[in-house]
Amino acid sequence: MTKVHVNASRSYDIIIGSGLLDNAGEYISAAIPSRHVCVVTDDNVDPLYSALVLDSLSASGFSTEKFVFPHGEASKCHKTLIELYDFLAEKGFTRSDALIALGGGVVGDLTGFAAASYMRGIGFVQIPTTVLAQTDSSVGGKTAVDIAGGKNLVGAFYQPQLVLCDTDTLKSLTPEFFADGMAEVVKYGMIKSAELFELLSTEDIHANIEDIIARCVSIKAQVVENDEREKGERMLLNFGHTLGHAIEKYYNYTGITHGYAVAIGMSVFTHIAERRGMCTSGTAEKLDSLLTKCRLPLTTEAPMDVLFRNSLGDKKRLSSGMNIVICSEIGSSHVEKLSIEEYEKFLKD
User: Fold this and answer.
1) Is residue 245 among the annotated active site residues?
2) Would you call 276 a catalytic residue per the annotation?
3) Strands 321-329, 317-318: parallel, antiparallel or unpaired by DSSP?
């Protein structure tokens, strides 16, 4: 078992290991004062892990409720959010109670925003069950829902009180969903750790998964501590996401997963950057080789002019232009501030 501590506006532990769900109640009891909790999950995860978590919570003295919504990015919307608010009000939840997000990134994002906004803030615990959620979205306090104008445009920074990453839950993932999460893992190697990138490229990923998750979480924890509100260094975590979100929007958030879209975004930006002399020769080839090892795509059929327009609705856009993340070499990254005209030319290069 590995523990990573985050010192942000709220300090908390991220616990990584096998079999953590068996004792989830004990870990959560030690982390939060609340004794009335609602486990929020989706209809994919519910039959797999809800009973185990609820039994453990009950054994630790918690009074529990459960809210289940349809899986998928389409559910990360105001309709589901309002349904959750109404459920909490109906069950008598107060400011002294807490929500527990059990699932992947969609569950964590939506539950976190509900916790941040219901009665102006209640307790919140993350139990991520996917590679993407364990390595990235459950850590750092970003919570949000999507609107028609774009992904994650309505949200809040709201840190959890505990994150439990049970690596056993990853065994239930299909190869496609495991690969989806690996895009975020590759991202951490590209932006901050040549050592992690080398491990991913040369070693068996499944055999080293706890170490890999711990490395990613440690990187993100340090970035969040340095820049919780995404005014500087935390922008680096958006590598691949500007174009990735535009691709997701093109497919209406149903035709491609987040990780697949981010992988394409990383590859496309790196190839353009290398052609422009903005990164070391050979970087794109090494990135593509690792993405291929992780069973991730490199290209999209979406027209670049449409992706450009979709990018302009991304939250990384400024009134004066666009921030994009470039890796000058593996393990080193920086933010490029481009005008809209420069960004359009960059994409069409």
Assistant:
1) yes
2) no
3) antiparallel
pTM: 0.90
Q: Which tens digits make up the pLDDT trace of 3-15?
A: 999 998 899 999 9
Q: Is 323 a catalytic residue?
A: no
Is 226 a catalytic site residue? no
286 is catalytic: no
The residues that bridge with 165 in the sheet, in sequence order, are 16
**Of 245, 248, 271, 344, which residue is the catalytic one?**
245
Q: Is 315 a catalytic residue?
A: no
- Bridge partners of 128, per DSSP, are 103
Q: Catalytic pick from 76, 187, 192, 234? A: 234
Indicate the SS3 state at residue 28. helix
Annotated active-site residue 230? The verdict is yes
pLDDT at 56: 98
Q: Residues 6 or more apart from 7 whose CB is under 8 A from it?
A: 225
Query: For the chain, percent helix, then strand, then coil, each to nearest 5?
Result: 50, 20, 25
Q: Which two tokens stand for residue 97?
A: 């109670």
Q: What is the mean pLDDT of residues 143-153?
A: 90
Known catalytic membership, residue 142: yes
Of the residues 73, 76, 151, 184, only one is catalytic, namely 184
Give the model's confidence band at 290: pLDDT under 50 very low, under 70 low, under 90 confident, else very high.
very high
pLDDT tens digits, 214-255: 999 999 999 999 888 878 898 999 999 999 999 999 998 888
What tokens were used for 348?
A: 């069409």
Active site residue 238: yes
Contacts of residues 202-207 at CB distance under 8 Å and 24 or more positions apart, as own/partner, are: 205/294
Dump pLDDT digits (tens) for 260-271: 999 999 999 999
Token pair 């939250």 is found at 315
Task: Residue count of the chain, please give it.
Answer: 349
* Per-residue model confidence as pLDDT tens digits over 156-204: 999 999 999 999 999 999 999 999 999 999 999 999 999 999 999 999 9
184 labelled catalytic: yes
| pLDDT, averaged across the chain | 94
Q: Which of the following is catalytic: 76, 142, 215, 271?
A: 142
Q: What are phi and psi of 42, to 5 degrees?
A: -115, 175
